């Protein structure tokens, strides 16, 4: 029977598949850490109160990257090169979503519209991250090898999502509602397609590593494409709605240190 739990268990049980999974995750988190650190440094004066929260967001992402590397070391593994077609973060940038790295590398202050672009991008992608981690938490939160990491990262991703809701609602009340609406809808359309393509690429590579049959590969690909069609029709709404979060000021404190994995 194919299920998220059984698929991830196969990945967890195979060193090569686990190495690829942790490498892809670590790379994406490290990129997110760098991006947030640069945005915090360049935030406009009108939004300076956001800088510590953006920096905290980046510190969390950087911490997650270190956690995935620590999980690899715990097994005596090293990170592998991340295939381009599995690089979710960079593929979003190539689609013009979020703030381009060239923009962030320039020492030029961001505009308020740039801040909206950043927060809208984060609102959509953190929804995805929060849902993925909640799935892992449900199935592997008590796992002796990865459970502690899953619990910490899932809690952080929920904080990040709450922070995006909170700050976008604040900006909407300040008169930026239409700009936020446009940014969210532009981002979600691209994210759905990128997530589909990355999922197909990752599953294809896992299939090679784990020796899945052509029939199983085809079934998984069909499922990924069916999920994409549902999200295009209806599911996208959950990724652009805004509501006051249950967690208030979730990034108002310093990031917790990354745990040690013996």
Q: How many helices does DSSP assign?
A: 8
How does the helix and strand content classify structurally?
mainly alpha
Task: Give the overall average pLDDT.
Answer: 94
What's the number of extended β-strand segments? Answer: 0
Shape category: globular
Helical residue percent band: over 70%
How far is it from the N-terminal to the C-terminal residue, by CA?
A: 34 Å
What sequence of helices (H) and strands (E) makes up the elements?
Answer: HHHHHHHH
Key attributes of the depicted protein:
262 residues, mainly alpha, single chain
At a glance:
The protein is mainly alpha-helical and 262 residues long. The protein has 8 helices and no strands.
Give a verbal description of the structure.
- The chain is mainly alpha-helical.
- The protein is built from 8 helices and no strands.
- Helix 3 packs across helix 7 (147-210).
- The longest helix has 64 residues, at 147-210.
- The radius of gyration is 18 Å and the shape is globular.
- It starts with a helix and ends in a 29-residue tail after the last helix.
- 37% of the residues are buried.
- The model has no long low-confidence stretch (mean pLDDT 94).
């Amino acid at each position: 029977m194919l299920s998220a739990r059984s698929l991830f268990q196969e990945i967890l049980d195979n060193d090569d598949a686990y190495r690829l999974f942790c490498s892809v995750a670590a790379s994406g988190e490290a990129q997110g850490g760098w991006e947030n650190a640069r945005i915090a440094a360049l935030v406009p004066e009108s939004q300076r109160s956001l800088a510590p929260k953006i920096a905290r967001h980046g510190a969390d992402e950087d911490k997650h990257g270190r956690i995935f590397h620590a999980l690899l070391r715990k097994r005596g593994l090293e990170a592998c090169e991340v295939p381009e077609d599995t690089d979710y973060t960079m593929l979003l940038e190539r689609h013009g979503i979020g703030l381009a790295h060239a923009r962030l590398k320039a020492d030029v202050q961001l505009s308020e519209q740039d801040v909206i672009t950043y927060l809208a991008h984060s609102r959509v992608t953190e929804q995805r991250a929060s849902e993925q981690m909640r799935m892992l938490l449900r199935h592997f939160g008590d796992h002796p090898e990865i459970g502690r990491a899953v619990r910490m990262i899932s809690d952080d991703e929920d904080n990040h999502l709450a922070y995006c809701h909170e700050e976008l609602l604040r900006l909407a009340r300040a008169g930026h509602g239409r700009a936020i609406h446009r940014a969210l809808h532009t981002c979600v359309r691209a994210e759905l397609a990128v997530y589909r393509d990355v999922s197909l690429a990752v599953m294809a590579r896992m299939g090679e590593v784990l020796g899945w049959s052509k029939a199983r590969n085809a079934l998984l690909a069909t499922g990924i494409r069916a999920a994409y069609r549902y999200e295009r029709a209806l599911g996208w709404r959950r990724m652009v709605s805004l509501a006051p979060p249950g967690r208030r000021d979730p990034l108002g404190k310093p990031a917790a240190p990354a745990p040690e994995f013996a």
